[in-house]
Amino acid sequence: MLMGIDLCFFKGFDVAMRLFCPALAGLLLLNLPALGAPLDQPAQVRLTKPCDRPAPGGCIVHVSLEGTITPETPGKLVAVLNEEMRRINAPVVPYLHIASPGGDVNAAMQIGDLLRKTTATVVSNGPCHSACVFVAVGGVERNLSGIGIHRPFFAQTQAKNFLDADQRYKKMIGTVRAYLNEMNISDDLLRIMIGVPPGEMQLLSPIDAKRMGINGIDPAWDEYMTAREARTYGLTSAELRKRLAAIETQCGREDMMRSLAEVQKRQECRTKLRERILWDMSEDKVARLAMMSDQICREKPSESDANRDCRLTLAERIRNEGENRPTAQSSAR
Question: Which of 251, 250, 153 minimizes the C-alpha distance to 196?
Fold first, then answer.
């Protein structure tokens, strides 16, 4: 969620964080290398789909970033998001479409840091090579193709001797490792990066990209979203995961689908079963809960604790209706 960026700071609803001021932002103070991509075609950042309807958690805005990442690219992204926030007078959550051959590592990590703080989603149909990967892993949800990696290297060698070069290289790799750890990315990614010479490019398979955490959902974001959804149904996170797994068992996993018809059938199955299994009620009772919630809980703000508690109270009442109703035989006595 992004709100009120100025030259040096941006603010969320309840927090102010450093972003883009050379005198303050820690990453900008680091003299990190480019990854070797040509810098004669700087990345263009454009708003491709503006905010449709502001929401409490931030309005989703689609942004494209295409081209080589340069030191100016973070400022371009900030400017685009600022302009949209001024227009709607509300916070935004970026949905970033990226296609880049790479570029400046420092700038890429600045963008990734911003994306993480704003809980952005990052997607790409490729290519996403070199420094582009550092941008992408900043998203809390990522779906990328055409991922290419190789070892980071200095665009200009300033080392006076081997010991100097060794120290500079270790410092660079340490900074990259710390950044990837901050993004909850497996050390496997950096290990494989280091093994690929700068003049080469290793393309990652979808399986490898998912295993290293590049594609998928950030673990911390997954925990947060799971806990939030669990509260909606009055469940623990563990119980919610168990019920979601039951839905997958009955409807099938998406990665096992072999045709569009199978994918559609799976989605229909999930739609039909989801509320029944999560609420642990029959289809008729789920329908009653939805109707009563619209009537009784509508005055309470959407997604608020009051609205959630109202729905949970109604759900418990509906579940217990059959148990509390006296049978004909007991009434006759």
Answer: 153
